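Protocol step 4 of 6: structure prediction from sequence.
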Amino acid sequence: MLFKEKLNFRVRISSVEEINISADELVRKLLKISETENVCLLDSCGVNHLDSHLLVAGIKPLEILEIRNKDAEETLEIFNQKLADNFAGIFTISYDFGLKLENINRRKKEFSTFPEPDIFLAIFDCLIIHDYDTNKT
């Protein structure tokens, strides 16, 4: 069964340095960097829905994984192993993976779609975080 035991992950932050930059300027610079480097960016855009208030970015990932398996448990096992390596990660989980976790049959789509991994995971040794609530980066 999925999620049988509670996982005890602790975040280890070796150092934090405040950068004097606005969210808009940070995004502009990240987009410029993305012309030549891999950049991952998750941004709540300051919309405070369900307590989301962060912009999280990573540059030059150490590893990028697109995890796909017929078995949801195998996907979760790989995901958990990668997150246990004490690096930061930015990830997305597909809607179809949620269906797979719940053993719900996928409906045929009336339009063409791009193949999407169950989980996209980018591993970083450092992240940039902007907090819209405090306006600090």
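Step 5 (inspection) to follow. The longest strand covers residues 54-59.
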